[in-house]
Amino acid sequence: xxxxxxxxxxxxxxxxxxxxxxxxxxxxxxxxxxxxxxxxxxxxxxxxxxxxxxxxxxxxxxxxxxxxxxxxxxxxxxxxxxxxxxxxxxxxxxxxxxxxxxxxxxxxxxxxxxxxxxxxxxxxxxxxxxxxxxxxxxxxxxxxxxxxxxxxxxxxxxxxxxxxxxxxxxxxxxxxxxxxxxxxxxxxxxxxxxxxxxxxxxxxxxxxxxxxxxxxxxxxxxxxxxxxxxxxxxxxxxxxxxxxxx
Length: 246
Prior knowledge:
Layout: H1 2-7, E1 28-35, E2 38-47, E3 55-63, E4 72-81, E5 86-96, E6 99-108, E7 113-119, E8 123-129, H2 137-145, E9 154-161, E10 164-180, E11 183-193, E12 206-211, E13 218-225, E14 228-238, H3 242-245
């Protein structure tokens, strides 16, 4: 389930203006997660009310059903800067079985530094070198939604995760129609390749399906991990804009 948040739930080209963004405050995406074809969890991605120049983008993941015996919950808040098309950092609160931790990262892109604080069994506070155009898992997902996603497009992005910078490769494979609990959607298929290790290392590339329209809604995601295969499918979508105007 931790891998669901990682798999799903993910700033190199010129940013789009906030008004032209395919997502707006108030948007909510709900996905059902199956692991080894068994319902095992839920993922919610929501864009919160603007806080100054920042939009808080919340990514929540939790085990459900038969997998609820393994108590895994994650609540990540990414600080999305719509004018820059990048995140300023993130806050993560997680319960992973018996291990609880809170992570905080803030980026100083001008100085090329990330300040990372992790409160788990002990307190870790460190500064890590990053490229100015670095992404985290949340901003990769948001940035991809801003792109044209033409067939054959190829992107290589620096990806920051906890204490390392990886290279994430995204390739647009083509168009197809996918059927999920929320309905049938013409979709754009994007292959994702990272360099994660350990039990969450993928045996093959992960794949994201975005709706083939201006919204670029995540309708499906899949990944094959060392422990098995995971698929997340869209259950419900609420467009943004309305909450922000209330």
